[in-house]
Structure formats: C-alpha cells, structure tokens
C-alpha cells in the first residue's frame, strides 16, 4: 500500500479520537465550566449535527478544488477547532470548537476515501479505504482511552492540545505524501448531485444507515446492559470496550480484504453475521464470558461492512463520487442516531436493557435485504438503469453485472 495512506490513517485517527474522547471527559468539562452533565452532553449532539450537515455543505462549496488541497484545508479546520476547544474560556466557545471540528469530520473521511481509492488499482480499493477507517477504529482502542486518561490526570484542555499536535502531524503528512492533483475545473455541484438519482447510490446509502444504526442500537446502551444484566462492574467496562475496539479494527481489516474479492457477497455475509450476533447477544448477555465474546464479535461484524459500503458508493457514483462519499458519512451518522433512538424507545417501553439488540438485529436484517436487492439489480443489467443524463451527455455508473461492485 502507498505510504500516503498512512497520512490519511493518522488524520482519521485524530478525527475519530476527537469524536469519542469527550464522552469520557464529560464530568471534567461540566465541573470546570460549571454546567450540568446534560448540558455538557450536548457537545456530543452538536458534534453529530455538524458531521451530518456541515460536511456535505463544505465539500459542495469547494467541489472544484483539487482533493489534496481540500484535505489540507480540512485538516487546518480540524486543528483550528481543537485549538479553539483547548482555549475556550466558556461553554459557548467550546461548543463552537466542537462543531468546527465536526464539519471537518464527515468531509475528511469522504474525500480521503476517494483519494485512497485513487491511489491504488481496482483490486485494492476496498483495502485502501479500510486503511482510512482503521484510524477511526483505532481511535476507540487507543485514542479515546488515552485522551480520557490525559484529560483526567492533566486537565481536559491538555487532551485538545494533544489533538492539535496529531492534526499538525497529519497535515504535514498529507502535504508531503499525497501526490499533487490537478484542479477540478470540470467538477460541478449539479453533476455531483445527479449521481443521487442512480438507484444503486440510494440503495448503498440506505444500506449504510441501517448497518451502522444496527450496530449502535446495541452499542449505545451496552454499558447498562453489561452492568445491570451481565453483572460486570463499572471498572470492567474499560477493558471490555477495548476488546470491542479490537473487534472493530479486525472487522474493518477483514471487510476491506474480502470486499476487494467480492463486494456484494462480503457485505451480505457481514450483515448476516451482524444480524445473528445481535440476536445471540440478547441471550449471552446473562453470562459474563459469553457476553464478552459476543461483544467482541459485534465489533468485528459491525465494522466489516464499512469499507465495502464506502467502496460501493464510490463505485456507483463513478464520475462524480466526492459528494456521495461525504454524504455516506452523513448517512452513517443519521443511522447511528436512529439506532440509538429506537434502542432507547425499547428500553423506555420496559422491554429491558437487552431489547436494543433486537432492534439492531431487525435493522441489520433490513440492510441485508437491501444488499441482496442491490446485487440482484446488478445481475439484471442495472448499468442502463443507473445512467444519468446531464446536459445531454450520459454519465455512466460503475461497471455492473457481476455483483461485485
């Protein structure tokens, strides 16, 4: 794999750490800024909203810019947002810093995925995209726990200074290692938007939202499930979350490797596994060792879909993939919010702390059904159905017919 991918992976690691680290620092932030835990929790909601809305708008505004230049600007925004968070004298400026970095989040992962796919040949595109998302997965294993430890021992502002440092290294790596790219004078927002009329692009986005929603329907409420149902102590949650994070890295790696060989079969297998694991988790949650094993497998199955889904979107949006890739990240966050909401409803309905697993299993099964439908559309000759006429000229979708892309 090209060395340039390491710069994208490191930057993704910093971005992923920025997203998750605040969860462990909420008491520290709330106490220092004299706000309630609930108010501090809005820093997470504000970040999610910034990812969903800000990324596509930012990329649309700079659609003609060379992708390397866009990546550099996005990392500068990331650095500025964390710098603002580190220096924020009060809650309002800290929220502004969080939203600023969130705008970079979705845009960076989308653009970086397109750049990563362009750096390698067709047989390694999913693995290249998987490397980008490995940074985010590793943030769960190393970045967020490390940032939480730093914040708890040296102050939460030091954590944001640490993120500024990671951003500077990522910026230097992108500037040095990513090849120079020509300006994109032919890129137009209308052309990028036109790909969303292709049925396969819409299907891929729905698959993304449902699959990530399935994972987070369970994961959002895993702490009370493991403590109240399984019987683990709160101290045991940290190693259990690290085990889950390792599962994310393993699943992401395997998903990228096998998606390069046969994309639709890999997605279908991963989603079938995710459906099964979520259903089984309902029963293994009552026993400590089986619950820990199932929790790790949940990470493997949940993230095995990620590189294949992004590859699918980029492939089906051929000719104008940048905005579609960014919207994929937004779709995943919409799915996460939906999964968390539905899981919460099931708990509020007194169905128990394991009930979100069933919600997730249903969402994963729906994603599997859409995947099968998408593969069938390929086999029926979806190439002609996905052609989009723009300005009197056909814009071709990616090659279809074998169901592998």
From TrEMBL:
CDD domains the UniProt entry points to: MFS_NepI_like (cd17324)
Segments forming domain Major facilitator superfamily (MFS) profile: 4-379
Membrane topology: Multi-pass membrane protein
Region named Disordered: 382-405
Transmembrane segments: 38-59, 71-93, 99-120, 127-146, 158-179, 200-224, 236-255, 262-283, 289-310, 322-343, 358-377
GO cellular component: plasma membrane
PANTHER family in the record: CHLORAMPHENICOL EFFLUX PUMP RV0191, PURINE EFFLUX PUMP PBUE
Protein name per the record: MFS transporter
């Amino acid at each position: 794999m090209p060395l340039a991918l390491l710069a994208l992976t490191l930057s993704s690691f910093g971005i992923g750490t920025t997203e998750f680290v605040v969860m462990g620092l909420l008491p520290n932030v709330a106490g220092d800024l004299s706000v309630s835990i609930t108010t501090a929790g809005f820093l997470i909601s504000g970040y999610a909203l910034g990812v969903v809305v800000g990324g596509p708008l930012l990329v649309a505004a700079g659609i003609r810019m060379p992708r390397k230049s866009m990546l550099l600007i996005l990392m500068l925004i990331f650095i500025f947002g964390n710098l603002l968070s580190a220096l924020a004298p009060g809650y309002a400026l800290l929220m502004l810093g969080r939203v600023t970095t969130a705008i970079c989040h979705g845009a960076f992962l989308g653009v970086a995925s397109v750049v990563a796919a362009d750096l390698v040949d067709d047989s390694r595109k999913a693995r290249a995209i998987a490397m980008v998302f490995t940074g985010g997965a590793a943030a769960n294993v190393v970045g967020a726990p490390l940032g939480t430890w730093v914040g708890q021992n040296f102050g939460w502002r030091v954590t944001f200074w640490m993120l500024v440092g990671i951003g500077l290294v990522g910026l230097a790596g992108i500037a040095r290692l990513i090849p120079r790219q020509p300006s994109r004078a032919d890129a137009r927002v209308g052309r990028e938007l036109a790909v969303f009329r292709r049925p396969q692009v819409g299907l891929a986005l729905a698959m993304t939202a449902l699959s990530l929603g399935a994972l987070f329907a369970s994961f959002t409420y895993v702490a009370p499930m493991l403590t109240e149902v399984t019987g683990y102590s709160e101290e045991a949650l940290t190693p259990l979350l690290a085990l889950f994070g390792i599962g994310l890295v393993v699943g992401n790696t395997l998903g990228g490797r096998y998606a390069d060989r046969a994309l639709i079969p890999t997605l279908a297998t991963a989603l079938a596994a995710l459906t099964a694991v979520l259903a089984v988790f309902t029963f293994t949650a009552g026993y400590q060792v089986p619950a820990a094993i199932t929790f790790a497998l949940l990470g493997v199955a949940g993230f095995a879909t990620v590189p294949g889904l992004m590859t699918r979107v980029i492939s089906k949006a051929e000719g104008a993939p940048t905005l579609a890739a960014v919207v994929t990240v937004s779709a995943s966050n919409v799915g996460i919010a939906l999964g968390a909401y539905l899981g919460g409803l099931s708990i509020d309905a007194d169905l128990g702390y394991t009930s979100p697993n069933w919600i997730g299993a249903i969402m994963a099964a729906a994603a599997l059904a859409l995947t099968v439908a998408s593969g069938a559309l390929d086999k029926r000759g979806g190439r002609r159905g996905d052609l989009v006429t723009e300005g009197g000229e056909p814009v071709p979708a990616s090659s279809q017919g074998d169901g592998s892309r």
